[in-house]
Amino acid sequence: MFKRSIITSVLALIAIVVVFTQYETYTHNPWTRDGQVRAYVIEVTPRVTGQVTHIAISDNSRVEKGDLLFEIDSRMYKANVSKTVAAEKQARALVAKAKNEEQRSIRLEKRTPGSVPVLTLNNLANAVETAQANLEAATALVEEAKLNLQYTKVYAPTDGFITNFNLREGSHVIANSPVVALIDEDSFWIEGFFKETDLQGVDPGDEALVTLLMHDEVVIEGEIKSIGYGISKSDGSTGNALLPNVNPNFQWIRLAQRIPIKIKLDNVPEGVQLRVGTTASVKIIKE
């Protein structure tokens, strides 16, 4: 009986030590399984409207900065370039005509003072300025038309991955309406959501260890880049009939809110591909 009591006491002591050790470890190294892979998603938007005539990419493919994504029917924009170039030539000819008339009147006035009224000379000078302004406007229209022609070819703005791509040849795209999602390859980070009670002593620059759910055998080292300064309020938001939404809770339970922490990964091992939205576990090593 005495021996059994000793064994029970030893096992209880071991359990207490283990629990205390785990608690100390968790206190000094907060850990969460509520983490996600994040990255900047660029919404590739055509600058002009038209029908898609050629697609150079496929869904879930990698592209490099400057790669052609797709082309828009350029015939109308080529015609517009020709039209604006012709208008520019016409404006330039009107400038030359206005200058010739002004110079002829000035020479005549010099030979025979008083032969040309001052008002006429002023009107001729104004005509030259107007013609020059019209020429500048025509030149600007030419530049705009050439830019629109260039915009019929849409290129990748950065290295990254095309995802959820549904555009097809023959589709009609509208200017300033996004049509392609491009995940920036160099912008991946981990966002971990920690209880507010775990953040005491946690600072930017602290080391973090990340394990991805789809690669749970690999531990990736990272560094805390920033800690969120606020989260959205749930209670008190407007609901039906403009009344506040208030969630029921127990008076003796105070639930800790979760604060987002952004973690930059140092070196992602070869063979590990980060994918936006996948699950990650994060452990913080306090300095």
UniProtKB/TrEMBL annotation:
<keyword id="KW-1133">Transmembrane helix</keyword>
<feature type="coiled-coil region">
    <location>
        <begin position="91"/>
        <end position="148"/>
    </location>
</feature>
<dbReference type="InterPro" id="IPR058634">
    <property type="entry name" value="AaeA-lik-b-barrel"/>
</dbReference>
<dbReference type="Pfam" id="PF25963">
    <property type="entry name" value="Beta-barrel_AAEA"/>
</dbReference>
<comment type="similarity">
    <text>Belongs to the membrane fusion protein (MFP) (TC 8.A.1) family.</text>
</comment>
<keyword id="KW-0472">Membrane</keyword>
<dbReference type="InterPro" id="IPR006143">
    <property type="entry name" value="RND_pump_MFP"/>
</dbReference>
<keyword id="KW-0812">Transmembrane</keyword>
<feature type="domain" description="Multidrug resistance protein MdtA-like barrel-sandwich hybrid">
    <location>
        <begin position="42"/>
        <end position="181"/>
    </location>
</feature>
<dbReference type="GO" id="GO:0022857">
    <property type="term" value="F:transmembrane transporter activity"/>
</dbReference>
<feature type="domain" description="p-hydroxybenzoic acid efflux pump subunit AaeA-like beta-barrel">
    <location>
        <begin position="187"/>
        <end position="284"/>
    </location>
</feature>
<dbReference type="InterPro" id="IPR050393">
    <property type="entry name" value="MFP_Efflux_Pump"/>
</dbReference>
<dbReference type="Pfam" id="PF25917">
    <property type="entry name" value="BSH_RND"/>
</dbReference>
<protein>
    <submittedName>
        <fullName>Efflux RND transporter periplasmic adaptor subunit</fullName>
    </submittedName>
</protein>
<dbReference type="GO" id="GO:0016020">
    <property type="term" value="C:membrane"/>
</dbReference>
<keyword id="KW-0175">Coiled coil</keyword>
<dbReference type="InterPro" id="IPR058625">
    <property type="entry name" value="MdtA-like_BSH"/>
</dbReference>
